[in-house]
Amino acid sequence: MLKVDRTVPPPPGEIRPFRFPPFLRARLANGLAVAAARLPGLPLVSLEIVALAGGQFDPEGREGIAAMTAAALDEGTVRRSAIEIAATAERLGGYFTTGTDWDVGYLATGLLSDHRVSGLELLAEVALSPTFPEGEIERLRQQRLAEIVRRAQDPSTLADDRFQREVYRGTVYAHPLLGDQESVLGFDRDAMAAFYRRHYTLAGSILIAVGDVEPEALLREAESAFAAAGPPLPAPAPPEIRPTPLSGISVHIVDRPGAAQTELRVGHSGVPRTHPDYVPLVVLNTLLGGKFTSRINMNLRERHAYTYGAASRFVPRMGPGPFLVNASVATASAGDAAREVLHELRRVREDLVEPEELDETRTYMVGVFPYTVQTIGDLAKRLETLTVFGLPDDYYTSYLQKIAGVTREEVLEVARRHLDPERIAVVAVGPAETLEPQFAGLGAVSLWNPQEQLEPVQQESV
Amino acid sequence: MSSSATPDLAFERHTLDNGLRVILHRNASLPLAAVNLWYHVGSRNERPGRTGFAHLFEHMLFQGSEHIPTHDHFRLIQQIGGVANGSTWFDRTNYYETVPAHQLDLALWLESDRMGFFLPALTQENLDTQREVVMNERRQRIENQPYGLAGERLHELLYPEDHPYHWPVIGYMEDIAAATLEEVRAFFRTYYTPNNSVLSLVGDFQPEDALARIAAWFGEIPAGPPVPPVSAPLPPLGGERRAVLPDNVRLPRVYIAFRAPAYGHRQWYAADLLAAVLAGGKSSPLYRELVYERQVAQDVGASVGPYESAGTFMLVATARPGVELAVLEEALLRAVAKAAAAPPDPDDLERARNRMQTDSYSALQKLESLADLFSQFTTYFDDPAGVAGEAARYLEITPQDLMDYAAGWCTEPERVVVSVVPHA
Questions:
Q1: A349 by DSSP, 3-state: which?
Q2: What is the ipTM of this complex?
């Protein structure tokens, strides 16, 4: 019988090596890039086309066209109606879906690996020959408008939207990805078809395939499924997005009378995913608000019990995505919670972090990495990141080494360079009557209703 | 349906002298180990006036034990690259962590310390903090969410006051505020015993070695008394129940619920399959009718709760602006009536069956999910092999089973309708 000593952490056993799963990157004869990885064990496969067609390409006045174009791709092809596309995948036990973020648009299907050729053919058909049928587009537009109405009742969404509006004023990132009531009425099917032709070119796209399938076999099958594609046009380059730095601390209250709690956001614009400081920044953020034992969560949740949980992140985008802290807090504590967040941002810019604290953060980040590549979806997302941000094949291996090498001095340096608690937006969504007095003295306060209209009577500055 | 591979779900099963059941499943695809503990206690072991206690208690188990200082549970796990969490449900509470495989002992140390040596670390201060945290959790997840109170109301109407599914897992605010230290102690002594628990281990380890370690860490914890049985009498509803909930929403939504047999019964699988037939996916009949064709709904869904004492079959649809909820209610009820009167369209049945198969495979992808399933099937049915058998249960279900469930259970006097509408 083994004897155990409960008074100290047990010594670790022999470390088992981790290697990032092997994957293949290639290009089909027609120019379509492919990234494929085999994940054996379960008879499933995920197939996805990712195109450089995200919200960053929304023209002014047509906000939401990227998102709606993606949503319209599976509304009909030269061969199938919207319902037939869904039914084809669903009859095989799978799904077919499309979507967008700020960087890319995507079409994806997931099914049993035995059916992958059917999946590839469906994916190719929708990617290459969508017809944007008038009737379906109108239904989709009405659904969008209803979705925009629904978003205005969700406190978390209201907070995110107001935050974007304030931090990215005058840039494409300021609007909601879905657009708004007016902009969604401002483009027709022809405009969407034109957006599609311009941005869903195979030259700017990638096929990502992960699951129980040999990458080489998949490559052959993809070659045949996508053979019909014509010669690819070059993809337009992403726009340069340059937010104006904020001019101080500003507070934006979105009034939800009677709300049970307050949604809080604190932040400003950050850096593109490809910024050379990205790795030390992620280490900084993990320590600050990126894990349960981070400074911000321990302060707001375990020390003050203001919230069920608080977190911070640098959102990875091709352009300068936001740095933001988010928490749902007890309304009576919202002002204090915001001040504690600012306190933590100032503190991490003032002094070197404790050696032990940095050590724990680095070992956490390196140790947890295998946990984050367990599923087909996990691995597909990693391959997408490599491709979209133009990272080398050995990126994840060197990423882990780089994390292990980040120093206290680098953390302080990037905190000073990329966090600015004196030029920052604070958004609070909750009962304005209770919230407003709590922010007195913190910065200029503006008051909004959930329909995004400024309520000027009560606007005040400090 | 053919498939190229059957997942390897072989396991070993052991029982320690103190009654702790242990399930071991080796999967060395990544250098990780997932440790998962189910305690067979949930909100169904509470009583009216003391609701939410099982969940508040779960929070307390992260506040340290005799050899683990208050904030160290997460810290110790995270600093070696592990992740940890817990959750509470009607019938059970689970605690789990995934750690690098060479740190298995650390996870076993933490879990065995709180099973065996929890009480010495209990303080009023920690209880006060966690009561506040949980009240914020209730506000965040329920009260401040659009439609957030609908599920609670549905259960209150579907189950009588003395039935343990009547109240919400997270509990009512005033009950959470009332919890005392003495109640925490009594709850621990009654329910947190090795004989009321299952430990599942999935990942990169040698079973013999892992079992020896588990025995070393958990073997000395004494067995507790048998757990008091839960009484869950469930007379028929005997008349439709309705409620209208004004909420801070813009689009009204209707929920329709019926009871279903307990999880594990053949008719539970019939109910679950019926939910997938009616509204599983964009090509399902309800989605087609309400969203694509008539364009009266923003979304529609159907689901069945896998509870130990009784199931809950639920349909939900959100109205498009300007559409009356009566329109949606009529369509949902018509679909249910049709399901009782005639077999499903063969294409819809095939779609639903295939979906169940891919869903059951997808659920096996993460080590921690697989470990959770081993604990689940062992806790509810004393049958870890049920993990591998789950997908096949759906294949046994016939069109007649679907009709029998709909005709026998989804009747007007057994129905609950909750409408969420914008504040006047």
A1: helix
A2: 0.93
